[in-house]
Every structure is written in structure tokens, then in C-alpha cells.
Amino acid sequence: MKKKVVFLLLAFLAFANVNSQILDPAKWTTKIEKKSDNTYILIFDAVIEKDWHLYSQFTKDGGPLPLEVVFKNQKDNFTLIGKAKESKTRTAYNDIFEVDETFFEGKAQIRQEVKVTNPKLTKIEVELNYQVCKEVCINVEKKFSFALPAFSPEAATSKMEQAVVPVATDSIKIDTLAAPSLGASNYTEATTAPVKDAVEETASDSQRGLWSIFFIAFLSGFAALLTPCVFPMIPMTVSFFTKQSKTKAQGIRNAIIYGVSIILIYVLLGSLVTAVFGADALNALSTNVWFNIIFFILLVVFAASFLGAFEIMLPNSWANKVDSQADRGGIVGILFMALALAIVSFSCTGPIVGTLLVEAASKGGIAPIIGMLGFSLALALPFMLFAMFPGWLNSLPKSGGWLNTVKVVLGFLELALAFKFLSNADLVLQLHLLEREVFLAIWIAIFGTLAFYLFGKITLPHDSPTTHISVGRLMTGLLVLTFTVYLIPGLWGAPLKIISAFPPPMEYSESPFGVGGSKGSASAAEVLPDGAKSGPHGIIVFDDYEKGLAYAKTINKPIMLDFTGYACVNCRKMENNVWSDSKVLPILNNEVVLISLYVDDKRELPKNEQFVSKTTGSEIETVGDKWTDFMITKYKTNTQPLYVITDLEGNNLNAEKPTISYVGVNEYETWLKAGISNFKK
After folding, report:
1. DSSP per residue over 155-216, as a string?
2. Residue 226's pLDDT is what?
């Protein structure tokens, strides 16, 4: 009897130990507030465990998965008023994904205002999909149901936690993880500060971001100043003020008013963008696939305009009406003169302003206003300064073909930037149409053509005939050619740190070693098995369990399951730091069949393969859902990375340590060898 009790106790502890790996670091409560007869505010509050990061809706593409707020029964029942608003977040640079990430620490609040259009509606159903990370990452899906107070008054103040359905991946107990926390190891600044400190640091990060926007916008304004639409107007406008003014002081005053008017017009434009779309709406759009595709098309159109294919102009009637108002004189007349400048120069400034507004708006808050302040300040300063010192006009270079050259160079830059937005969309959809090599090849072609243009080997529609090129143009051409040559080794795997934020990451390529690269212990010419691809460090890897299992049976090798995610930081760290080690890489290449199962793979399963999980009750609709359910059902965990070694029947080969996660090289090697040894017995 005593033995039975001991056995039952041990079994209970073992069961509890296994299930303790189902982590849920964010605890949610909800409430609903009635704002008017048919308008409500849905409020989600989360308490986040220490050192965990829950990623915002506005974290950038290419990093961890952003929060999604999905309304299940919205159609014909209610409309959303604006974007879901968030409490204070923090932004920090992640050197693995090479993007700025925005996340919550300690606590989070999401508020969504809705307007009910169906008077018979009794509840609103919402689903939150998000990722939380520490040493491991978890993808989570939580479902909520809000009873409308009009029909269930007591629900208005209830804060009952809703049903939780985890949908994620990773492994092993947290106390077995040998590495430091994700925040401490991957960010440029510590990420374990209390919430109060995090708020202060968020403000600091935001401040630095606004200064960056201002500086870039100022340089862009200076570039716009050197275009054929704006530069010739400097001497004309300054001469007008000096001749029309009775005294020098009056001329200076009028020119200053003119410059301030230019600033006010563009700052007003930035304010309108912020007011109409909201402080964070364009930020949310910037992470959207369709937004990135549409902006790619717009930038290509802008580039074509700068290169001379056509001109983007506002209606002439606008300029005529504004110009007639400018004749009124006084401050009002000067204001209309500034507005006329903005309209007449739109064909040159419009593409630059459009690009700036989207880039600034992606930062959220008052960034569009700051961006337009920087741009307009650079545009207005010359008019004010030359009015104060008219003698300087003699030092200005004469208008000529060089102005069109500036415009053409801007066109090439717009074209190169366009592919960054197309790359963002491709990365999110994981289409692999614009992988790193293709992206770099396009940039090499663009900047190489620009170098030929600057050297006078190519002419475009609005170029003036020349017998020689200037020294400035030659020097610029050499600089562009140097940059082009710098890009070329990137095709063979060079990291290209100067432009690391622009091309897709090294892993998102035809080969992790670049064009013509070697796969180390495997032959570069080796034909891959059916369903396999070249993974990190040239390891043959499958992303489908059945195909990987079939191959393992044909060569009689054990299987290493790698439960991972496209947005899993520590998965990439394990691949970069542990898999690449000289003691581990030969084992992965030669002694196991690697099957990587991505839990955040958003490809939809065929309808006949979709099902409802018996373990979690979730609807399994995507490939990622399938592998997540497989992990939770078989290995009782919801974190990633998770590594398992099995035989050809799916049985675990490591009895003492069935799974392993984020560990060092020595422990990983020992674990691998133990599993392989058991397979050979």
C-alpha cells in the first residue's frame, strides 16, 4: 500500500511538472464602458510577468509578431471608431532582427471604441492574437465576449477573465535555461526596469526618434530646395521683396514673414495628417501588407516623375487663384505667395513630402508635425537669409542642367527606397519573391545605373546637352560607384552592415551563404530531397513533418524536431550561436534529419485538413496552428524554441531530458549525442 501511495505521488508530481510548461505570462481582465446610447469602449487590461515582453500592434515588420485585435461578429452589428489605443509602450532595437521593436512591460491596456449599429446585438466577440517573449517566446490567442450593458447591466462593471487558448511554441522549464533574458541580451539598453522606468525610457526613445525625423526631414527639405521647381525662385522672390519694400528693414521683415508662412503651411499639413488619421493610425498601416504594396507603387510613380517620364502637378486653376490673392499685399498677400510656392513646386516637393509624411507617421504621435517642421525650415531659411543679405545672391550658382541632375538623383533614391516597402510585404507574407539576393541585385542595378548617369554615359528626357561633366558630378558619381561595388559582395553572404536595416535578413535568402556559397560539410551541388530546403548554415531541413519522416525512414536516421517561429528571436540566436558551432553543426548535417515546424506560419490549411483541437478547443485553420497543436498535445508545452529527438515511430529518444530549449553549446551537444546513441542501440 505504501508503495502505491509513493507511486501515485510521484506520478502526480510528474504530471504537474509536465503541465507547468504551459506558460501564460499575461493575465487579462476586461470591462466595458458605455459612452452614449450606442457607443461603447471595450477595455482590455493585462498584468505581465516580470521580464516578459508583450509586443505592441505597432512593432515593426521583420521582428516579433505584433498584437492583433480581431472582431469576430462585427459585420452588420457594429463599427470601429478609430484604431485600438494602447497604454505606454517601449521601443528598443533588436540586433537579431535588426528592427526597432515596440512592446509592453509590466502591464498593458488596450481600449477600442465601437458604435453599435444593430439594436438587437447583445454581445461583442473579440480575439487577441499576440506574442510574449523572455528566454522563450509564446504565441497566444485569447477570446473575449463583452455583454452590452443595455442588455446585461451587470456586465458593464465585471472584470471576469475570459477563456484562454494558448497557440504557441517552446520548451523546457524556465529554470533550465542557461542564457540571459531576451531583453538583456538582444537590446541596446536594459529591458528589465520597472514600469515607471520603462515609461521614462519610452519618452527618451521617442525623443530621439523625433530628433531623427527632424534631421532627415531637414536634409530632405534642403534636397527639395536644389530642384528645378524651387531653386530658381530664390533670387526671384528675394528680388521681389527688396524692390517692393520701401526700406531694407521692411524687405527683411516681409521675407521673414514669407519664410514663416512656408513653415506654417507645411506644419499645418503635418497637423492635418495627425488629426485626420490619428496619432497611431498610420503607424498601424505601416505594418500592413497592402499599405506597403500601395506605397511601393506610389514611390515608383514618384521616381518615374523625377526621372522625367511625366510631371505630377496640382491643377493650374489652384495656382492662378492663389496667385491672384497674393496681389492683395500685406501679410495676407505674403501668406498666399508662400502657398503659391507650395503649389507651383509640388511636382518636385510632392514626392518628397509624401515619403516624409508616411515615414514620420509610422513613428506615431506628433512625428508628422516634426517632419514637416524640419522640411519647411530647410525650405524657408534661404529666402529669409538672402533677404537679409542680398549680396549673397551673387554667390548662388546659376540655374541650369545641374538642377535636373539633382532631381534625377532623387528619382533613383525614391526607386531604391520603394523596394524596401515591397520587401516588407514579402517578408510578412513569406512569399520569398524578394529574397536578399534579389533585393541586392535590384539595388546594384539601380545605383550602378545612377553611377553611369552621373558619369554622363546615360541621358534622360530633361537633361541639357553637355560636353563635359563637372567636378562635383564626378565626385558624386565616384561615391555612388563605390557604394555599388560595396553592395556586390552581399550576393556572396557579406553582412553589409552599413545598410543592414534595408535588405531582408541573411536567413531570408536563396542560400544562407549567398550566391555560389558552400554548404560546408554538404556538397553545394547536392540535390535536395523532396520537400527539403537549405536551412541555416546549409543544413538540409524539412518544414513538413510527413515528408521529413518519410526521408528519415529511407536513410534510417533519427529525427530532430525544431519547433520554431519566423518571429522567434531566440530561435535565431540558437541557430546563429549554437547550431553554427564546430561541435554541433556536423551532427545536424550528418546524424539527424532536421524538421523545422513554424508555429507562426500563416498559410491556410485546405478546408478538409482544418479541425478543432481536442486539447485546447481552438480552431486549427493555418499551418502554424497545426504545428502548435501538435506541440501542445504531444509535448505539453507552448513555448519556442523547442527541440525533440525521436525515432522513426515518433518515440522520444531522451528519457532523462525529453525536450530542450534555449541552452549553451555543450549542453546542446551532450543532449544530441545522447538521443542519437539511444537510436543506434
Report:
1. GGT------EEE-----S-GGG--SPPHHHHHBSS-----HHHHHHHHHHHHHHHHHHHHHH
2. 79
